[in-house]
Amino acid sequence: MKREAHMKNPIWSLPAKLAALLIVMAPATSEAARAWLLPSQTIVARSGGWVTVDAAMADDLFSFNQGAMQIDALSVSGPDGQPVAPQNPAKGKTRSSFDLELRQAGTYRIAVAENTVMARWEEDGKPKRWRGTPAEMATGIPANAAKLEVEQMQRRVETFVTVGTPTEVKPGTGTGIELKPVQHPNDLYARETAKFRFLLDGKPATDLEVEIIAGGTRYRDAPEEMTFKTNKDGEIAVTWPAAGMYWLELSVQDEKAVVPGVKKRRASYSGTFEVLTQ
Amino acid sequence: MIRTARIALTLLAFGGAATAADLSLSVEIPQLPVAEYHRPYVAIWIEGADQNIAANLAVWYQVRGDHTKWLPDLRQWWRRGGRDLKVPVDGLTGATRPVGQHLLKFEAAQAPLTGLKPGQYTMVVEAVREVGGREAVRIPFEWPIKAAKRESASGSKELGAVALTLNP
After folding, report:
1. What is the pTM of this model?
2. Does the distance separating the beta carbons of B69 and A43 come in below 8 Å?
3. Would an 8 Å CB–CB cutoff place B79 in contact with chain A?
4. Which parts of B15-145 are beta strand (E)?
């Protein structure tokens, strides 16, 4: 990331300028900063209430100090599986946000799922980059691009909110990495063990490293991340050390792209989960 | 046949009256030296060995103005079954109580205790206060009541003395 930015802008050699550039670029690249959704609350007593969700790209969990997350690909599904329209969507400098009116009892899945293609090539000896949807590839990438490298990116960022009794969360698309909860994501408690199952293209996502980090990283000297490896069923078992808001991420790089003309694929999943006190 | 049933019922009613097994609970809401005081939300229930709610005994919350929004702050009660309940419930939910001792009494042969199967249970009293803290006090006991017994426990902040009295 740093080297590419430098190559792209050879006259920008001052560290301060480079840092500024990196911050500006952060929201545009998925690997630049951690992506997360932060709901104002995850447990709501009864239907008819509201929650506000912030969407940001920032390594500090959960501080809005890097860049806003694009929410064009936001989709919210209600307890009945039907889409729920976000209200008051806003894009700020450090975070995007939207409100959700929770008219039904049950669990809501809030997801920003993107399916994009990243391309790099050389033009007159200079590196070029492009990112867009698979449908835009033909117009975005020159047909005769030299040293072309393309990669499909399937990114899913999620969180969950429940009104009253939690209801079943079903994986929806069968593409990329998805969560198929064993323990309900709105029923997590300190010092208890919760199982999570992940799917890759609808099948158990086996042998993948999962990282979980508690919020409040700015107030700790060490990140204190917990790492797990998914088993043959795509599962991990997490014993929550304390109550709080947690961020989870896993990703895979393989050659299972499903876009014509693309071989490499990177799929990632990140989720925000609230763990409650005993 | 009908007559036999009637006699049996009469005997049952008579028997019940003669040896009225009961369970009573005294719960103290302590006076707290705080600048901003709100009466706590309190949930009192009997927890089964599976940790689920075997019987809800009382839920006190701010009824006026519909403040059910804050019921999930009674975290244990909420997760163990409070969230499945549609409040208000006659004979269960009521307004918050002031500082002092509150006495609750339940007949063994009457709701909500009639559904209790023999086994180990825990009496749980959970309190949570606006701009304050949360605390749960637990007293284990056995059902049905075999001998007169008085068990007590105490909260350290949000709850005072809690005493469970069992009469066979």
Report:
1. 0.85
2. no
3. yes
4. 22-29, 41-47, 53-60, 93-94, 100-107, 119-128, 134-143
